[in-house]
Amino acid sequence: MLSLKKIASNTFYQIIARIAATGSSFFITLFIARHFGLNGYGDYAKVTAYISIFYLFVDLGLNSMFLQKEDMHLRFRDLFYARILLSLVVVAVANIIGFVLPYNSISHIGFSPMVRIGIAIFSATLITESILFSASAVFQRKLIYKSFMLATIIGSFLTLFLVILFGILGFSIVFTFIAFVIGASVEVWFSLVYTEEKLFPVSLENRFIKSLFYETLPVALMLIFNMIYFRIDMIILSFYTTSANVGLYDVAYRVFDFLIALPLFLSNVLYPKLLQEEKNNRNVKSKLIMYVLLFTLLGVIVAIPVWFVCPIIFSLIKEEFVPAVIPLRILLTSLPLFFATNIMQWILLSKKKQIALAYIYASLMLSNIVLNILFIPQFGYVASAIITGVSEALVAVAMLFLLFI
How far is CA 75 from the centre of its chain? Predict the structure, then answer.
């Protein structure tokens, strides 16, 4: 049974890690915006938004099913090497698609040759992320998020240092992506050391991997649909508007993305508890309602101060980024919903309702794509922000129906 102290400490370690990662990301954003301007930042946003979609394909939610295995403590190498092979395939696919993405050299809308080079370099982080995902399974199983925190801090601040160094030396924005790859590689090395797991001899038992992938397929589809519906607006914006507008929406979304990750820290720690309660038939509705209400309240508490301080945040970056206040405030109105759906998702996974979740996100993905294509050409990033909130409201209703009806 998890003690309150252990839950609190491991949640705290994750928050510190997130603050370190987001803090370094904020200063990187600040530096790139000031050094390369709004258009340069827009190109940077296109690269990172594009590759971020593929992170889900090296994650696939394998950890959620892996942690339910009785012999998981003996199977780390199988998970590790399966993800490595998968990430190599995903890198190849991402680059092939990136090479043929459209670009209008007259209007400067789309994916320029420089952006494609950035994609090729930054895609190496798909490999490092695949390793970090596997290491996270160990951190979650052993509840040693302090090690996760240390590795994240080291990798994040090294990346920040290198981005600033390359910029001061007058290097192009392409070297920003090289800095990310170096920083991520160092973070991976420390993470593997902290897991204390043996990587050799190489182990890849086909039967175990096939079983794991089969069981995880609904979760994988759910996460993929979720990511596409969640980030497709950025890609569609890249096709219909300038790098400057892409940059404004991206910088707003980076603040929002940090906020919606906050409930995940608590959910990560609670998930083993949810699994145990479900196994012992102790997941009573009253307790589940308490979880949902608590997470919703936390979302409200977080959203209110950010609403008032966001103009200061963007003015610190550069005055031309202040219009990003509009999409961020629209997104903030849906923050409590994102907090609520976060815990409901983990509760439903503990109840093995991943197939239903996959159907929910598949439906939302399709509607989100259609709505963004219809409204982005006329209303730009304002439409994207509104559609994001409406979509999450529909997700919340569907999840509540699965849980309590």
Answer: 25
State the pTM of this model: 0.69
Helix%, strand%, coil% for the chain, nearest 5:
85, 0, 15
Listed as ranges, residues in the chain with pLDDT below 50 are 1
Q: What are phi and psi of 107, to 5 degrees?
A: -90, -10
Distance CA 105, CA 99 (A): 15
* Contact call for residues 38 and 321 (beta carbons, < 8 A): yes
The counts of H helices and E strands in the chain are 14, 2
Euclidean distance between CA atoms 140 and 119, whole angstroms: 31
For residue 378, the tally of other CB atoms under 10 A from its CB is 9
At CA 235, angle to CA 326 and CA 43, rounded to 5? 80
Please check whether residue 249 is in contact with residue 324, taking contact to mean a CB–CB distance below 8 angstroms: yes
Closest CA to 103 of 286, 8, 239: 239
What is the distance, to the nearest Å, from the Cα of residue 152 to the centroid of all Cα atoms in its chain? 15
Contacts of 72-78 with C-beta under 8 Å, sequence gap 24+, read 72/137, 72/141, 73/141, 75/208, 76/134, 76/137, 76/138, 76/195, 76/197, 77/197, 77/198, 77/199, 77/202, 77/203, 77/204, 78/203, 78/204, 78/205, 78/208, 78/209, 78/212
Tens-place pLDDT, residues 316-363: 777 888 899 999 999 999 999 999 988 888 888 878 787 888 788 888
Number of domains in the chain: 1
Residue 215: alpha-carbon gap to chain centroid: 22
- List the domain range (segments joined by +) for residue 309: 4-404
How buried is 238 (Cβ within 10 angstroms: 0-12 exposed, 13-18 middle, 19+ buried)?
buried
How far is it, in rounded angstroms, from Cα 308 to Cα 305? Answer: 5
